[in-house]
Design a protein that fits this description.
Layout: E1 4-11, H1 42-51, E2 56-61, H2 62-69, H3 81-86, E3 89-92, E4 104-106, H4 111-120, E5 125-129, H5 132-140, E6 146-152, E7 172-179, E8 185-191
Parallel strand pairs: 1-5, 1-6, 2-3, 2-5, 3-4
Antiparallel strand pairs: 6-8, 7-8
């Protein structure tokens, strides 16, 4: 079975919208696009390079696909461009978009069923980047094997959140963590079953 990994940049208050630039996603009147850029350091580049050092395929929501497709095919010399351009890109969309980025494949029918079928097949690791709505779907159907959360020390107060209303309660186990020189906490989590509750109250 193929492993499915979600890798996402989020603010300390859980916003994941438009980390890379002002024009990336201004839907809902979002005015803080590019909030992650000033925090990038050499260590973060090394962590990202390591994550892309082994073969992988991408599973992307339509909006994230469009953002990636508008940039990476046209910047082949950028760090990280080759593995992204070489990967097969599986795209979840409610419509039938024209997918012009090389090695792009539309997930036909129900997204959760399509991704479950991909996991059952042969091939490299499946990586999900961004794609907030798709991540919610994958979590709801318990298809995520690992979460790599890059938590940035900034509060935005508004914007699309990774764990929005409807998130399925799930226990997680921290299996790895590292911190950049700029205070970005990169944590790797695996699902750990149902949420276990208790009480600190004295008997």
């Amino acid at each position: 079975m193929r492993k499915l990994v979600v890798s996402t940049f989020v603010t300390l208050d859980g916003v994941m919208q438009a980390p890379g630039g002002p024009g990336e996603d201004d839907s809902g009147g979002f005015t803080h696009g590019g909030w992650s850029v000033r925090y990038w350091d050499e260590h973060m580049g090394q962590v990202m390079a390591a994550a892309m050092s082994s073969p992988f395929d991408l599973v992307l929501g339509r909006r994230t696909y469009d953002i990636f497709a508008a940039y990476w095919p046209h910047a082949p010399e950028e760090a990280g461009a080759k593995p992204l351009n070489d990967a097969t890109k599986y795209v979840a969309s409610r419509g039938r978009p024209t997918l012009e980025w090389a090695e792009s494949v539309l997930i036909e029918g129900d997204a959760a069923e399509g991704v479950a079928a991909l996991k059952e097949g042969d091939g490299p690791e499946l990586q999900v980047h961004g794609s907030g709505n798709l991540v919610q779907t994958l979590l709801r159907h318990r298809l995520v094997d690992e979460l790599r959360l890059w938590v940035f020390p900034v509060l935005l107060g508004s914007g699309k959140r990774l764990f929005a209303d409807g998130t399925v309660p799930t226990g997680l186990s921290l299996v790895d963590s590292t911190v950049s020189s700029t205070g970005v906490v990169i944590g790797t989590y695996e699902p750990a079953g149902e949420v276990v509750t208790g009480s600190f109250a004295l008997d």
